[in-house]
Amino acid sequence: MKNSYHELQNGYLETINRGIRGVRNFRPGFSFGTGTREGNIRRLEDELKNADAVLIGAGAGLSTAAGLTYSGERFERYFFDFAEKFGIQDIYSGGFYPFPDEETRWAWWARHIYFNRYVSAPKPVYEDLLSLVRNKDYFVITTNVDHQFQKAGFDRSRLFYTQGDYGLFQSTDPANRKTYDNENWTMKAMEAEGFIRNADGIFEVPSNRKITMRLPSELIPKCPDNGSDVTMNLRADDSFVEDEGWYRASAAYAEFLNRTERKHVLFMEIGVGANTPVIIKYPFWQMVNDDPDAVYACLNYDEAICPKQIENRSICIDGDTGEVLKLLRSGN
After folding, report:
1. Helix, strand, coil abundance in the chain, percent, nearest 5
2. Whole-angstrom Cα distance, residue 137 to residue 118?
3. Residues 213 and 281 occupy one common structural domain
4. Taking a C-beta distance cutoff of 8 angstroms, is the pair 214, 222 a contact?
């Protein structure tokens, strides 16, 4: 056992560097894949059955397919007052809004956290995905921060949340490299804002729609160790805290890659956009390019592409990921 988690192998940096070094190999261009949609779904079904291991790389598109949308009806239902007063148009942009005081800022974040971390996704997309890999040697690397993999029943030891977790705070003190669970604080804050639990125990807007956009000052969260201010444990800059759990997950990712190297591995990329391609997309392309027994699958809405070099070992499926996973689960 390593004496310090800092001595563990860092799969995160290793694969990012590998992807960056290898991306120049894909200059000949990109492809939308070969074959028909129906044929590619059947190919993916076969790969899921026959692969020695499955590496899932998941981005925001997977949670969107599961109904965790950041705009539209969900936003209007739970953030209507912030929209009216501040002109905020979606949950994502609200996280960057310069609120007038800490009481208002943390009232926003209580809702932001709760409705994207402590409730289950409206659609069983994560459960469908789990049913396809439950009996396989699998691992998940994701840029999502909403904890939906664990809520759906995925093995925690097989998950690597690279960009943080809505369920964690970190201190603004740069010397403090710990994270802190925020569930109890979030529940108290939701009650303080006037949300009411329904019959299933889920917070909802009361029928009179009387909720507040400010928390009592005593509910502004502080670090339990030294009383310093806290912020979200989300990767925005170099102040992001990579705690012991993060390093152990990164090492588990490296161990999975080492153990399955040169095996028949299905690299299954789902809902990964172009915002952070160096974390999942580029490394997946390069690892498939390097291993003649590996297969790459890309499930995405309008962005299902692959490099031409690995076109013959790629399965690109455009469209609603939830519908694709449902078809795969049903075997149709």
Report:
1. 45, 15, 40
2. 28
3. no
4. no
Residue 193, phi then psi, degrees to nearest 5 = -80, -10
Cβ atoms of 110 and 190 within 8 Å: the answer is yes
Mark whether 90 and 42 lie in a shared domain: no
Whether residues 106 and 28 share a domain: the answer is no
Using CA atoms, how far apart are residues 21 and 210, in angstroms rounded to an integer?
Answer: 54
Find the radius of gyration of the CA atoms of the chain: 21
Q: Write the CATH number for 130.
A: 3.40.50.1220
Tell whether 126 and 116 lie within a shared domain.
Answer: no
Within 10 angstroms of residue 87's Cβ, the number of other Cβ atoms is: 9
Q: Find residue 161's DSSP bridge partners.
A: 142
116 SS3 class: helix
Q: What is the pLDDT of residues 223-253, one digit of tens each?
A: 999 999 999 999 999 999 999 999 999 999 9
Confidence band for 331, pLDDT divided at 50, 70 and 90 = confident
Sign of the Cα torsion 76, 202, 127, 112 reads positive
Starting from the edge strand earliest in sequence, which strands make up the sheet with 137-142, in order? 159-161, 137-142, 53-58, 265-270, 295-300, 314-318
Tell me which residue of 87, 162, 72, 75 sits closest to 115, measured CA to CA. Answer: 75
Q: Are residues 201 and 318 in the same domain?
A: no
- Lowest mean pLDDT segment, chosen from 72-86, 143-157, 272-286: 272-286
Helix (H, G, I), strand (E, B) or coil at 171: strand
What residues make up the domain containing 113? Answer: 73-120+183-220
| Rounded Cα distance, 255 and 59, in Å | 22
| The predicted structure's pLDDT at residue 1 | 41
Are 155 and 257 within one domain?
A: yes
Give pLDDT tens digits for 185-198.
Answer: 999 999 999 999 99
* Residue of 214, 231, 224 lying closest to 113 (CA atoms): 231
> Cα separation of 110 and 268, whole Å?
33
Helix 37-50 vs helix 321-330: crossing angle, to nearest 10? 60
Say if 172 falls within a structural domain.
no
Domain count, the chain: 2
Yes or no: say if 192 and 211 are a contact pair by the CB < 8 Å rule.
no
